Amino acid sequence: MEIQQYKQQKTVPTVARSFIHSLLRREEEKSERLVAYVRMLLAIIIFTIGVSIKDEIPLHSLGALYLCTTLSILYSLFIHVLIRYRGYKPLMKFISTFFDIGLLTVALLSFGGYRTFKAEAFLLYFLWITLAAFRFSLPLTIFAGILSCSSYLFLVGMSIFFQTIEIGTITESYITAKVSIANMGIRLCFLVSFSVFAIYISRVSQQMIKNTAFHQFHAAHERQEKEKVQTTFSTYVTPQVAKKILNEGTSAVGEKRRVTILFCDVRDFTTLSEQMAAEDVVQLLNEYFNKMVTVLNEHGGILNKYTGDGFLALYGVPQSSDRDEEMAVRSALVMRRVVDLWNIARAEQGLATIRFGIGIHCGEVIVGNIGSDDRKEFTVIGAPVNLASRVEGLNKVLGTDILITAEIYHRVRDMIRVKPQPRMKLKGLQEPVRTYQVISLKDSCEDNLLKSTPAAVTADPGTLVGSLIGNVDSFIKRIRRSG
């Protein structure tokens, strides 16, 4: 039922059918090789038994036995060579089944008289029907069942027509050379019943394989489509957010959680953009955002949204840790270092330099997918978000570049040097807010900051800029500490 529904889809029915067909084809090829091994082994065993009891078998029957076993061995070798050098063909299984059952019928017929119907070789019909079902092909199993029953009926008809057997009762068939019609009928009923059973098993097995193949294909297809969507979606939101939305959907139900918020904005961007061509402005912003987002990703932050020439970054979503505040501050310091080095490189090329302002705050906010039914945005809302935005704006007033609130400072004060700023009255808040300008990490943390500077956003050490990095860094630190 699921396969039929899936085939009705317009996107992948041909691919799905091709996948299932190729899977069954591989299984058929493996089965055909295995049947060839079984045929060869069985021929060797029968040949050995024939040699050991050759005095008890009529000469013409013994010759037929040797001929049939030799042909079986040669045919098995031929099938192996053919599959190896020419590849497997679906018709092979029908030819092999016809060969096996036909050869068995010829061997039984050559025994002559009552031996044709009392020989244990009759059981090989059941074996060939079983091996046909083992090949996971319903048509082949039907073919093997019909051919086996027809062959046995042919033996009965030929023996009766040419009067090579003497008919007797069931009891006489066990103690004399006579053959019972009822006994032959019972054998034929067993053969027919077994064929029907084998056909049913083959049908169920084939359906199970198709269902398994369908589910494997469907799962692989869904996984590929999900990865494709996530890759495309990650162009517009962060990979973490894309994964969360794809896994959990776009439910409007939000959740409250503690988050660290970082706002960053380019200073005097309006004036800067008026002095540049439009394509240069876009190129500048793209290069700038690439560097900033690289820093965010390497410090566990996620880019929530772009705000023109700035952005909002979050720490603590989708997963939170006890170092969210620390990683936000470290990100800001690395961003400062990256922009300083980038500005040196741009100045060397005669290009305009940029300055930014960063505000960091933390608190409990509402996190969720917010928007209309047609378009939603994964974002955060709440007073802490507004406060972080106001703190970022204070950089213009105070002449600073990185400001943190008291909530952030109390969590990271052991690792940073700061300069306390005067309490300021902010829009929407009744009480003045205390902020701290982040100067640098303390000496014990400096090495870690150097290690956390992304290599992809630093200057080439082989250039003049690269050779000046160490001196410039030291100079910048001295300036800021004195400030």
Word description of this protein:
- The chain is α+β, with helices and mostly antiparallel strands and 483 residues long.
- The protein has 2 domains: 2-227, no CATH class; 240-482, Alpha-Beta Plaits, CATH 3.30.70.
- It is built from 17 helices and 10 strands.
- The strands form 2 sheets. Strands 3, 4, 5, 6, 7, 8, 9 and 10 form an 8-stranded mixed sheet that branches. The protein has a two-stranded parallel sheet with strand order 1-2.
- Mean pLDDT is 82; it is low at 1-12 and 455-483.
Give keywords.
single chain; 483 residues; alpha+beta; Alpha-Beta Plaits; 2 domains; two-stranded parallel sheet; 17 helices; rod-shaped; disordered N terminus; disordered C terminus; transmembrane helix; A/G_cyclase; transmembrane
Q: TL;DR of this structure?
A:
With 483 residues, the chain is of the alpha+beta class. Helix content is 64%, strand content 13%. The protein has helices at residues 2-7, 13-52, 59-86, 91-111, 115-118, 124-134, 138-161, 170-175, 181-233, 239-248, 269-274, 278-298, 324-348, 383-398, 406-412, 443-452, 464-482, and strands spanning 167-168, 179-180, 255-266, 302-306, 310-315, 356-371, 376-381, 402-405, 416-420, 435-441.
